[in-house]
Automatic annotation (TrEMBL):
One of its GO terms (cellular component) is mitotic spindle. It comes from Crocodylus porosus. SUPFAM superfamilies: L domain-like, PH domain-like, PP2C-like, RNI-like. Its EC number is 3.1.3.16. It is an enzyme of class 3 (hydrolase). Residues 1103-1120 have a biased composition (Polar residues). It catalyses: O-phospho-L-threonyl-[protein] + H2O = L-threonyl-[protein] + phosphate. It is found in: Cytoplasm; Membrane; Nucleus. This is PH domain leucine-rich repeat-containing protein phosphatase 2. Keywords: Cytoplasm, Hydrolase, Leucine-rich repeat, Manganese, Membrane, Metal-binding, Nucleus, Phosphoprotein, Protein phosphatase, Repeat. Protein phosphatase involved in regulation of Akt and PKC signaling. Mediates dephosphorylation in the C-terminal domain hydrophobic motif of members of the AGC Ser/Thr protein kinase family; specifically acts on 'Ser-473' of AKT1, 'Ser-660' of PRKCB isoform beta-II and 'Ser-657' of PRKCA. Akt regulates the balance between cell survival and apoptosis through a cascade that primarily alters the function of transcription factors that regulate pro- and antiapoptotic genes. Dephosphorylation of 'Ser-473' of Akt triggers apoptosis and decreases cell proliferation. GO terms for molecular function: metal ion binding; protein serine/threonine phosphatase activity. Residues 17-26 have a biased composition (Basic residues). Residues 763-1011 form the PPM-type phosphatase domain.
Amino acid sequence: SGGRALSDQTPVGPPARRSRSRSRRFGSRERSWLREDAARGCVSIQGAEPAAAPRLVLCSAHTAAAELCPPGQRLYLQLHGDLARRLEPTEKPLQIVYEYLASLGFEDPLRIQEEAANADLSCMIRFYSEKPCQVEQLDRILLSGIYSVRKGRTQLHKWAERLVILCGTCLIVSSVKDSHVGKMHILPLVGGKVEEVKRRQHSLAFSSVGAQAQTFHVCFNTPAECQRWLRQASTVVSQRLSTVDLSCYSLEEVPEHLFYSQDITYLNLRHNFMHLSGSGGLDSLCRFSQLRGLNLSQNQLGEFPTSLCEIPTLTELNLSCNGLHDLPSQVSKLLNLQTFALDGNCLTTLPDELGCLQQLSSLGLSFNDFHDLPAVCEKLLALDKLAMAGNQLGTLDLGALNRMSHIKHVDLRLNQLKGASADSLEGNKSVTHLDVRDNQLAELDLSTLGSLEQLHCERNRLQELTLSGFSLRALYASHNRTSALPSPAVALLWTLSMLSTSLLKCDWYGAAFSLRFLPSRLLSSLSLRKLMAGHNQLQSLPPLLEHVPLEVLDLQHNLLARLPDRLFSKALNLRYLNVSANSLESLPSASAGEESLSLLQLLYLTNNSLTDQCIPVLVGHPNLRILHLAYNQLHTFPASKLSKLEQLEELNLSGNKLKTIPTTIANCKRLHTLLAHSNEISIFPEILQLPLIQFVDLSCNELTEILIPEALPAALQELDLTGNTNLVLEHKTLDIFSHIATLKIDTKPGLSADSALASPFWSHGLAEMAGQRNKLCVASLALGSFAEGMEAVYGMFDGDRNEELPRLLQCTMADVLLEELQQSSTDMVFMTSTFLVSHRKLGVAGQKLGSSAVLCYIRHDTADPGSGFTLTVANVGTCQAVLCRGGKPLVLSKVFSLEQCPEETRRVQEQKAIITEDNKVNGVTCCTRLLGCTYLHPWILPRPHVFSVPLSMQDELLLLGNRALWEHLSPAEAVGAVRHLHDPLAAAKKLCTLAQSYGCQDNVGAVVVCLNIGEDNCTCEGQGLALPGPGGFLPPAKPATPSSSSGIASEFSSELSASEVSSEVGSTASDEHSAAGLDAGLLPRPERRCSLHPLPPPPPSVFQRQPSCATFSSNQSDNGLDSDDEQPVEGVMTNGSRLEVEVDIHCCQSHGPEPALPQAEDGGPEDDASSLVLHIWRQNSAGSSLLPAVGRERGGELQKSPSTCCLYGKKLSNGSIVPLEESLNLIEVAMEAPKKKTGYFAAPTQLEPEDQLAVPPHLEEEVKEQMKQHRESGAEPAAGEKAVAAPEEFDTAL
């Protein structure tokens, strides 16, 4: 059990009290004892001093807390650096740790044992031998000390040493030195004053308020003490009400000195461990005679404290999240109670005695277990608000609501409502606000609610909705299933426009309705201020018949080809117009006359078909502050027109065909943001003269140089120049730009490690935009070459309101993944462990902060070498990954939010979390799974969703984005927007720009990965592919392949995909070779080969091509003679250089029947058609013959071929041909070529001009004749052989 002492004579069962410091490792005996049982482990116990090293105590999961501490002491458990709870003697510390780790997502018992011993875990769960308490918390609870005190303002009183206490709302001064009993002077501080005394050092004067005001002067010993008292007292005197906040202090009792503060009216004891009995327990709270408000939520009470019913002055009582199952009948004594919060408990019924509370106006019963509306609410005549969200109501009982004739606000979110029932047709004139979000309603008839002003019915299954619109002000009905029945939607609009006389807002967003037209009277309503009709199928708008007070009009994502001609002249109050993602080709005039009365300030026209003809119309809106014209058909922007838009603050011209930005942009003195990426701009605009310019994005253009002033604008924060391939920045320019907070420029490619690690299978681009936030809280991870170079990792992290966690995850998560890959090859295991370990490594920063995350890992399955690339995606929160497969989006991630994940919502509800009206867990976040936010455990978990999919040739793009991106772009729209772009950087920029034009004001980030996966995903070592350039993947160059008659597949250069062949990637062989003979020289070395192209077994007497990419070379002397030859090659003149002939055959797959191989003259055995073999053609002056390439030894040395050796039909990249000669006997294969980090060979594949062979004029005819003989002999297949493809044509100068 781990309770016995570990002695030298007892090798088993190390004791609970046997402890080691972290600096000292466990010995072999302890380690072997731990390995015997996964239920064993160690507990870290921290002492009272935070600086002291914790003790590691060996124990088992069955060891009780009493065995881990000396007699008379108790252990304390602290979770997430927050509250510290005293453990009961029978509780088992190690079992608590194991259960906590299992709740996070760890499953393997051995891994749980390992994680439990990790030092980083102390930030989430920690044990103390004494109750921990920080100095700051002690100061807020109670300050005390013996100081020199003088009463009164005059000098007549003497200074005397007294015990001084600051607790609650009062200053307490004892009448006798160092006395806690007897007469105490109480000085109420609320509304009073505290100030420093200038005549006496380290002194403060405390004064009360009122006619009987008193003053005490206190002299402290040190200035630090004086400042501590001044800070705390200043907080008290600044209050208008006598409020004491003791929340989150791990209190079991209130301080005894707090009872001296009899003026306390509101006491906050939320999130403590208050006991019922004791001198400062809940039973003693009745001693506060003026207490009106009491908050006891999250105290794990378990039962209702009946002593609270003895406080008749209470008007507000909060007992949420305490596990209450019922209410006592004594609750009827709280006659003055007005607000009663009982949310997050286990209540099923309410006592009838509750009906005595005739002053009760607000009753909170959310997230309990009610199945019906409580009947006692009919007796509460003053009840105004009833909150019953998150219960188990199945039917909306309109009859019960009619009987509650006093209730105005009803909250029925997150129930199980499937319909509404009414026992009579009697109308209800009291309910004004109804919220039935996140239910299962298919039909809803609320025609009896004649006074209804606001209705929330989002995320239901509504197909029919009936309302009485006489009082309706706002309707929220998005995300319903009305596509099957569009007519009620149209009828609803007609009803609203006909009956509503004060319609302020109509919001049909997303898939709420598929409207094809709007009624004319809707736009002519004199009460309409805001119309959100985006994401429909509107093809036109009705004409405006009269002036309308419309201020906000959102028509994005429709099918509009034009706007009403008199839109701007009739809607003079229009300030916001968004018509992005339509088919507009022109804009209506701003006014009928010369003078414009337009008040338009925000205009979004992105993703239309507007041309240069629309620019003059914009001049009619002189008040424009934000103008988005991205992704239209603009070629020019007239300078005279831009100069008149002097109020512009943000201008977006991205994605057009602009070549310049007019110089008159200097007139826009208020401009702070210019976005003009993805154009054809070659001249840097004159924007650095603007005094307020902050953000400039000129990426993906054609800039070549920049002319900048000597001093940059002080406000400039970000300048993006990436994607300008021809841009060259001088050192002087870089020095000036070094003062910018964020400068983005391209790293020039070179012979660096990064360029060598670039993968040919994928390239990426990323974009991050802050929007209207003053900081960037998103971060991206992009490693195109990971681990061994044939893998990739991409990630996106969104911290919502914090920037610390995304940066931490960006720096550490790839390293954690690499470590986890060493422990497991199962995608579910290593991805889950990566997220859980990253969650732990966040440390203190992860206690209060959280971040969404998505991580994509591309790899080959090590267990199955024949498999292709596999993409594994894991995510928490709202970051998503989408794969473009055959032009269609494939969503790979899962959104863990309350709105989009019903099962997660049910889990959170079952754990009694409070989901606020803005759909956030405890009012903090809408996500149910995050990295960090450990203080919200167990509601918020770090366990990710993991999904793996094999990649294929149909996979084109991988898109990663944060919440803001996917809220404004659907996966299908995102794929369609960037699929045609070859530059991943431009694609990522476009996604972010579209999101901003569609209404995104938050941080937005996107990562676009262009995939170039072949049909077999071959990753044999030396596999050559076209490397991606700045503009995307370039088409591969035509490889230098052997002729079809050489025995290799004839379709080598025509039918292999770009992922199988590259532009002649090879390696130069070494000049010095081993003298062990050909057979020894061709021994295979270890190399990576896919199962589709394995190393075939060598057939008898047939040379087998072993290396995946080799160079056939010859070493020549300066006089043109080979080192083993005495005569130069007859008929051919060389310049003495080394000739390289390269061929890559390791991926030569036959796409049809294998052609028959020619037989050798020596009658060798037939070749195996399934193996890759290489036949060398020999030619001499007499004729040509075929010989298999065999090894031949001469004195134990490897013979070198002359400079004219070549594969038959081998065409060099410079167009010349080398004829085969008689001296060709052997070929020399490069076995030890220099290997790069990525596993690819890279060497020159084209001869220098001075290395080309020259044929004398008098030998030209003879050479032509020999070539003709070669072609004729190669074109005639042997008898019985299958015909092969014709030889290539050579573009030789001959």
